[in-house]
User: What shape does this take?
Amino acid sequence: MPLATRIIIFLSEAIKYGAIPFLIAALSVYLYIKRKGKKINVPFFTRTRSLLTLSLIFSQLSTLLKSGIALVQALEMTESMDPQKGRMKFLADEVRKGYRFSQSLEHEGSYTEDVIAIVRIGEAGGNLPTCLDRVAANSWDFSQASMQKWSSLAEPLIIVVMGFVIGFVVLAVLLPIFNMSGLAAL
Assistant: This one.
């Protein structure tokens, strides 16, 4: 039998006998990781995930500030939303020490310059909640654009991979037939 046919037969047997143990092992690893409290990160989507988180946190902060809650208390209330534990507590402590919110963001170090600049403008103009809404909207728009880009890139890639798989299966099925027809002609 041709190599392509032997590969297809091997894969078929491997799936037939190994699919259930593989799924059980994958499920056990997944449950173990979840039980330990660790997160599974997909490297391509870390920026998108951080932008979505930033959008949700700043939107929540804006809502809390608009409803009359003090900035320090609002930061402490949004602590549970932040995947980086302690970041909001650090910001609240910095504001308690007398630093402005923009300075606290700068000292913390994980926020971009454009976020800090928008917050600084909001503080200077006395309209921090509106500027936090602006940061949240910008972050949401960037994350949506990023997800759209990845989905646009994934579509042709999936089509190419499926084409190779289908072509390989067709080749594996037709090669033995061609070999048999060659033997029949002799």
Notes: The radius of gyration is 27 Å. The chain has a mean pLDDT of 88. The helical segments are 3-36, 46-66, 71-77, 87-97, 101-108, 113-125, 128-185.
